[in-house]
Specification:
Helices cover 45% and strands 16% of the residues. It is of the alpha/beta class. A seven-stranded mixed sheet has the order 4-10-9-8-7-5-6, with helices on both faces. The chain has a four-stranded mixed sheet with strand order 1-2-3-13. Strands 11-12-15-14 form a four-stranded antiparallel sheet. The chain binds pyridoxal-5'-phosphate. Pyridoxal-5'-phosphate is lined by residues 66, 123-125, 128, 151-153, 205, 209-210, 238, 240-241, 266, 277.
């Protein structure tokens, strides 16, 4: 047995050892992937939008924990709230939790309409699992309708309704009675709802985050709501990425005054400090499902509602409201989006810029690789088809110290979702950096070629 690290040693561990630990104990391929683009850095400090490496070099985090950092890194108010409850029992399921009760109360106050009863778990996928189970038990029906290119998580239930084959195909058989329709397509939904009496719920994201930041047509959610009502089918909204101020409203469904039957939340709910996922629903739905002593404990989670996580939820919701982060997201998002939109006409590489609030995606056209492809035997084209977003993200990271990433279901899109506390100056820096990268299109290919000669070959081996 190797000697065990203590926490002080773990905090001082050098990069070679980190990579070795990942190779030996976590995910060897991930080491390769991050090193390929030179993404991996030794970050030792994080504060709001800025993370700092061991040499004191500062980076702007415009990835924002995939939407988990709406109030920025290490927000003092959240850490203090968690610290305040440190002497309370964090886990004591034999008794009702006071802090949990307050967090659930607060969530019901900010949630739209009559969404009042919630279940707290530990991640987004767990919130979705709870929601689809709830829809089946409450309706006594089986089918779940979901959207193509959706992303709801990677545990079995959520994966079964995540519309990308790449993630599903190795894990069959998935959950039965799940059927997909195109996102934003009302006629397809009508047809599906007319086709069966056995549909429990329709699940969708108000804006598809991992699908490439896809904003549906105006009025789409309202029409989905009306159709679900007409057919007696529950509407589940996955606001895990769009919720808690991100799109310029507390929840994205507020833009259309739509109240779902079940809403899923996670990510920023724990303030970027504690892992929390939750669904919230209407009392009559919850009562139909679990409203008896016999059924009360059918869906539970050991860590769900623990005192520290609940304290983080309380502090997060208060912070979002007190600092008016939804309004901040709306105003800054509009400023950011307007400026980025002008790139669509200016640069061939930029296919489309889209989003709402501070959830923004830039989709790229595949560039003409020309000479580079000849040199690399077609590898540059092959690489850029799947990793163009990653190449831009790599350039932003290494040349401009800006952290972003591509979207999981559409690698031709990079996402910009900084903390809602980002400054205009920081937004301007990102706009100017992107402008430079697009102006110097060949710079992007220089970068590719730097990697292409060795790394791309490794990658396809
Ligand atoms: C819309 C949406 N739903 C669900 C999830 C899954 O959340 P988690 O990774 O916490 O399980 C994500 C994660 O990106 C998401 O964006």
């Amino acid at each position: 047995m190797d000697e065990l690290y203590n926490i002080d040693q773990a905090m001082e561990i050098d990069r070679t050892e980190v990579a070795a630990n990942y190779k030996n104990h976590i995910n060897p391929s991930m080491v390769k992937m991050l090193q390929l683009m030179n993404f991996d850095k030794n970050f030792v400090k994080a504060d709001n939008v800025t993370v700092t490496d061991e040499k004191g070099k500062e980076y702007l985090d415009f990835l924002g924990g995939y939407g988990s950092l709406n109030m920025g890194h290490n927000r003092k108010e959240i850490i203090e709230a968690v610290h305040k409850v440190r002497e309370r029992p964090n886990l004591l399921q034999a008794s009702l939790g006071g802090i949990y009760s307050a967090a659930a109360h607060n969530l019901a106050q900010v949630a739209p309409g009559d969404l009042e009863i919630s279940f707290f778990g530990n991640s987004g996928t767990e919130a979705v699992e709870g929601a689809i189970k709830l829809s089946r038990i409450a309706t006594g029906k089986e089918k779940i309708i979901y959207c193509k290119d959706s992303f709801h998580g990677k545990s079995y239930g959520s994966l079964s309704i995540t519309g990308r084959e790449k993630y599903q195909k190795y894990f069959n058989p998935l959950l039965p009675a799940t059927e997909s329709i195109p996102f934003g397509d009302i006629p397809a939904l009508k047809e599906k709802l007319n086709s069966s009496e056995n549909i429990a719920s329709v699940i969708l994201e108000p804006i598809q985050g991992e699908g490439g930041v896809v904003v549906p047509p105006n009025g789409y959610l309202k029409e989905v709501r009306e159709l679900c009502d007409k057919h007696g089918v529950l509407m589940i909204l996955d606001e895990i990425q769009t919720g808690l101020g991100r799109t310029g409203e507390m929840f994205a469904c507020n833009h259309e005054n739509v109240v779902p039957d079940i809403m899923c939340l996670a990510k920023s709910m724990g303030g970027g400090i504690e892992p929390v996922g939750a669904y919230i629903t209407k009392p009559e739905i919850w009562n139909k499902a679990y409203g008896s002593m016999e059924k009360a404990l059918l869906h539970t989670s050991t860590f769900g509602g623990n005192a520290r996580a609940s304290a983080a939820v309380i502090a997060s919701l208060n912070y979002i409201i007190k600092k008016e982060l939804s309004r901040e997201a709306e105003e800054k998002g509009k400023y950011f989006l307007d400026k980025l939109k002008s790139f669509e006409d200016e640069y061939k590489l930029v296919k489309e810029v889209r989003g709402k609030g501070l959830l923004i995606g830039i989709e790229f056209n595949q560039p003409d690789p020309g000479i580079f492809d000849q040199l690399s035997g077609g590898l540059v084209s092959k690489f850029s088809a799947e990793y163009l977003g990653a190449m831009v993200a790599g350039t932003l990271n290494n040349d401009y110290q800006i952290i972003t990433a591509y979207t999981l279901n559409n690698p031709n899109v990079i996402r910009l979702e900084p903390p809602l506390t980002v400054s205009y100056e920081q937004i301007d820096y990102v706009i100017n950096s992107l402008n430079q990268i697009f102006q110097n299109n060949s710079g992007l290919f220089n970068l590719t070629m730097k990697s292409a000669s060795t790394a791309i070959k490794n990658f396809f081996q």
